[in-house]
Amino acid sequence: xxxxxxxxxVIIFDLDDTLYQEVDYLKSAYKEIVDPYVSSRIMYMQMxxxxxxxxxxxxxLYENYDLxxxxxxxxxxxxxxxxxxxxxxGAKLFIEELYNYSIVMGLITDGRSLSxxxxxKALGLNDWINxxxxxxxLGSEKPNFKNYRTISQxxxxxxxxYIGDNPQKDFIxxxxxxxxxxxxxxxxxxxxxxxxxxxxxxxxxxxLSCFEExxxxxx
Length: 219
What we know:
Blueprint: E1 2-5, E2 9-13, H1 22-34, H2 40-52, H3 57-64, H4 71-80, H5 89-100, E3 104-109, H6 113-122, E4 131-134, H7 135-138, H8 145-152, E5 159-164, H9 172-176, E6 180-184, E7 206-208, E8 215-218
Parallel strand pairs: 1-8, 2-3, 2-5, 3-4, 5-6, 6-7
């Protein structure tokens, strides 16, 4: 699709499962937790199996292995670890192209400040993104208007484009604010399902399979 942009354009992204695969963060944390142990590979595979089965991974890990850590300590290590993650290739090229056009970019993400800041740093987004909104730091989560207005009020008169993946919370508010919204389809790895009722207020203006489908046209 052709996406027309200009000096008044502001492109705002969701983070998890939009710019990178959130399951990669999970895998990174699991590997760090079990890495010191002799049977680390077996433990890691077991954790992934529990995850896919929808079981309580950390409770099961605590009950089945002597790690000298309780469930809460394991969860804390998960949240505080510095992840080994990368931007999706198409997302990286898209962001670099926007940066070369000097387009203002923002990020609106739900989650804990430390975890999300670690993700942002690991992905190198601090070098490109102008505005970052993290739910814990703001005290509200999407789809709260506050999360979106935090950026929109700084760029009054701009044309806003929002790119996300989760129709349960990503698009309803920017749609109501008159933003143009783009959804990136799940390739089967997303943490949160995109399978919800097709209420138009929850859907983006367009669904795309990947960032590579976007052709930027600057005028």
